[in-house]
Amino acid sequence: MPRWTSRQARKSPFIPTMRELARCYQAFERLDARLLRDHGFTTSQADVIFTLGNTPGMTCKELGERTLITKGTLTGVLDRLEGKGLLDRRPSPDDGRSYIVALTPAGEEAFEATYPEHIARIGERFNQVDPRKLEKIRSTLAELRAALE
Amino acid sequence: MPRWTSRQARKSPFIPTMRELARCYQAFERLDARLLRDHGFTTSQADVIFTLGNTPGMTCKELGERTLITKGTLTGVLDRLEGKGLLDRRPSPDDGRSYIVALTPAGEEAFEATYPEHIARIGERFNQVDPRKLEKIRSTLAELRAALE
DNA sequence: TGACGAAAGTTCTAATCCGAACTAAATTAG
DNA sequence: CTAATTTAGTTCGGATTAGAACTTTCGTCA
Questions:
Q1: Residue B3's pLDDT is what?
Q2: CA angle B54, B57, B63 (to 5 degrees)
Q3: By mean pLDDT, which of A55-59, B38-42, B121-125 is the weakest?
Q4: End-to-end Cα distance, chain B
Q5: b/e string for A102-139 if b means 16 or more Cβ within 10 A?
């Protein structure tokens, strides 16, 4: 994950932007991870729990697409959450290759106990930033992403 | 790394922005990693090489601050690059606790062979985006980061 | 229907990642 | 000047990461 240095920044106009993108993303990650550690989750685990909360469950494929976790990685994350008793994998009735991943009652409980508070705590930080600016960032980042993909 | 789902996005205004930030960062990462693999580097390794290129070297601490690599991680990355003969660690003359990390001649050679081409290839993608928009993103992201740190 | 290519998940490897504990050296306090 | 604190870097443990190879099942096409 090249996080561009200021020396490089002088050479090319896009580098400071990507450098700031990396810094900002990591700052968010660190804050998120710190808050979630209090609940006993890693960010990936919480992402899975938050995605499955209040749903009837979904396939690994769909879960991977929503969380942006690669399928090879997802297997391990699901193993650990299943080991904690927070979710289970049942064979899909429609497709012999896939599983439906869903929260157990204990998992739903963990979701309810964690999600609202977490969102609230993260949200406090964002109150300091103009929502219109956030929306502007979002749309321009989407444009940038299109160029990168 | 919670990458927010659209379900969550409906609940709170900042979530779509962070979701897009994560997606954009990861898209950049993937592109970067793919291009660097051709040169036999991981993104972290390239980040170190690019940061050390054309410098007299620096301490692990400074290198970690510039690359945003945590010190515990940095040790391993440096070990591997040292194993490839691309850099060396010499005890600092000023401080008995620290080392000066610098590229070897082979490392400088790798830097010259990799950096300009890599920047050029990444830069192609950015030509599609208005530089003023990029600058706008950068400054607003910096503002956002200040709220998160 | 029977082969063949695509898709869903798992497994594997090598690298990264963070945080915490640790060692050694430097700095500060009294 | 000595004791306490801080700092630089390494080591360690648990988890995540991507990608590639692999197994099983599905879908298609002839």
A1: 47
A2: 105
A3: B121-125
A4: 16
A5: bbeeebbebbeebbeebbeebeebbeebeeebbebbbe
* Residue among A102, A16, A138, A21 at smallest CA distance from B25: A21
Residue ranges of A 12-71 with Cβ closer than 8 A to chain B: 12-18, 20-29, 31-32, 43-44, 46-47, 50-51, 54-55, 66-68
Asked if residue B62 lies in contact with residue B52, where contact means CB atoms within 8 angstroms, the answer is no
Residue B104 has which token pair?
Answer: 């070897």
Mean pLDDT over residues B56-68, rounded?
Answer: 96
Give the least confident one: B90-94, B106-110, B135-139.
B135-139
Mutation site, A7, A10, A15, A18, interface B, largest B CB count within 10 A: A18
List C-alpha distances in Å: B71 to A148, B47, B80, B91, B92. Answer: 30, 14, 15, 17, 17
Higher per-residue pLDDT: B24 or A6: B24
CB < 8 Å to B137, chain A: 17, 20-21, 137, 140-141, 144
Q: What angle do helix axes B43-52 and B71-83 make, rounded to 10 degrees?
A: 80
- Residue–nucleotide distance: A72 CA to D24 C1' (Å): 16
Which tens digit of pLDDT belongs to each residue from A129-141? Answer: 888 888 988 999 9
pLDDT(A38) > 60: yes
Reported as a single tens digit per residue, the pLDDT across A67-77 is 999 999 999 99
Q: What tokens appear for A10 in the block?
A: 């002088």
Question: Closest Cα to residue B111, out of B58, B36, B50?
Answer: B50
Q: How far is B130 from A144, CA to CA, in rounded Å?
A: 9
pLDDT of residue B30: 92
Helix or strand or coil: residue A11?
coil
Asked if A21 and B24 count as a contact pair (C-beta separation under 8 A), the reply is yes
